[in-house]
Amino acid sequence: MTQLGFYFDQTRCTGCFTCSVACKDWHDIPAGPVNWIRVKSIEKGKFPSLFLAYLTMSCNHCADPPCVKACPTNSITKREKDGIVVINREKCIGKDECGFKCLKVCPWDAPQFKNELNSKMEKCDLCLDRLEKGQQTICVEACPMYALDVGLMEKLHEKYGVYLEAEGFLNNEKIKPSIIFKPKKSN
Description:
This protein is α+β, with helices and mostly antiparallel strands. Helix content is 21%, strand content 21%. The protein is built from 7 helices and 7 strands. The strands form 3 sheets. The protein has a 3-stranded mixed β-sheet, covered by helices on one side. A two-stranded antiparallel sheet has the order 2-3. Strands 4-5 form a two-stranded antiparallel sheet. It is globular. The N and C termini lie far apart (39 Å).
């Protein structure tokens, strides 16, 4: 199966949130708790030996996504042609009806819900609208530090290697997230 995924260079990310803001703007996501791409800061150490790194997280479009299996209405599917995990919001019965089943099984909290009664799940769709026009995802295009890339996993592996660990990221070999890293090493 062809699989699209992410590359994240943790050594380049400055925690500017441009990827997150661009995503919200492009997808018309209102201000509030929903963020399809989130930036987490990782702080370690004691003065004077401090360490700071950032980690961007969105849907990892896993090879074996647990959210697909957990959804009671089969509204979450994995596309055969590119491995993108998509949500059919028409079929989603909403958080109050299903009890956040998709969110509970996702190790990276990719499923997002608005603070509204029975809001429906939403998440990163890898900018399908842009990819279908031959454009890059908005988060990659917006990143001023060139810390992100999206493409076929085999091409990303050729270009960047196969490193599956980064500060603040817990890999899950069972579900195989479609992401590789250049990690920032703590001292």
